[in-house]
Write the structure tokens for this entry.
Amino acid sequence: MQYNTFKMSISLEGDQPFENIPSIKAKALRINLNEHIYGTFAEIGAGQEVARHFFRSGGASGTIAKTMSAYDKAFSDAIYGHETDSGYVSESRLKKMLDHEIDLLESRMDRKNHPNKMFFTYANTVATIDFAKKYKGHGWMGIKFQTNSKDDFSEIHIHVRFHLFEAKAQQEALGLMGLNLIYGAYYKYDQPRKLLKYLYDHIDSEAIEIDTINFSGPLFKKVDNRLMSLELVKNDMTKAVMFGPDGNNVLPAKVLYKKNILAIRGSFRPVTLVNEDMFIKSNQIISREKSYSENKLINLFEITLSNLKSNNGDVNEEDFMDRAKLLCALGHTVMITNFKEYYKLAEYFSSYTEKEVVLTMGVNNLIEIFDEKYYDNLRGGILEAFGKLFVKNLRVFLYPTKAKDGTIVNSNNIHVANKMKNLYKFFKYNNRLLDIFDYDESLLDIYSIKVLEKIKKGEKGWEKMLPQEVTKLIKSKNLFGFK
């Protein structure tokens, strides 16, 4: 199946808006006819796809200082320097291109003669679909720009993944998104959420995926990149995003590629001693195995979009940021996904690594996995889901719970539907389920929802249910309604 890349009612040469969206030519012309906008284009790997929109629209002589495509690797190295671990289609390469071209622009254009020029550099480094059509392709694009000639530069970096099956169509999609990025940088920089949505103007939303974006510089000093990451998932521009302990978004492919993965799903509202114990005990089990290598293991704290939504379906961003701040302060990498079902999460991981994947979960989560109602959308039902969930190297570490009568529930006495029992036994006795036995039983009475209630009501005693660092942060930053 090949997607329609563009909304075909838009003519490349036309000026008529579609659904109040400026035409392709109108956007390029607005940039070209602004006498103060002036910059360069450096495009590697997919031709001069962005620059051509500005040339074809007319009036580009006052806007474009230079366009170039250092396509040959040796020549590219001579200009931007050699790449080592990051490769040529990387954010590192993009940043070098942006920095180098801006430096050249400033050194060659005397500010005395051009006091009002607002400089910019647009760059991309892209690998389109390969000849065998095995790898669909991906790339980085970005802009370094100013909206006042006396200001420092701001930057927007974007990573895209293609879902089209023809290189030409991918190049055309890239050209439009690059045009939208430049237009948005100058005319929507003060509305970054709208800027994100406008990146898809005249592009089929299924043609290209944005899975990482970072804003930086003086124009975006009030922008939290974690919120922009959340916007990508909310707008269905991607299914999963990640941000590191420093709060900046990171490329999932780079983090997950050929890594062993330990993922813990939760609300983390707030992070409790139970969450901490699940994480510590899971790591201890993994570290005792012969294949263990610390630098080849990535730990992830995953939150689903559905877990972030309130009863009315909206995402409480303040609540999201409270969770994000806590997890980042604890030094964790956070993953936000639109994978309500575990098999989708497993399928996502398997697209990046063939190494071992461990999902640590509580008993109630495992019971839900064996509930057929979650797989009505699959033709093969629960069997199809389990084929995707329990891929070759995936295991589940099961953290116990305490029943109302005080009984400790683990994999040996868990209750699943009668017709699911044989399926359950198959996976349990094939070493796909592993109980965490050295848990702290005193923690089994801790539930984050009860902790949250105590915090909001100003009741005492919640502090002992959380790690000390979490308690300090909640009190010092007034998180989760603490007063």
User: Anything to note?
Assistant: The CA atoms of residues 61 and 338 lie 45 Å apart. Residues 253-481 form a domain with the Rossmann fold fold (CATH 3.40.50.620). Residues 167-187 form the longest helix (21 residues).
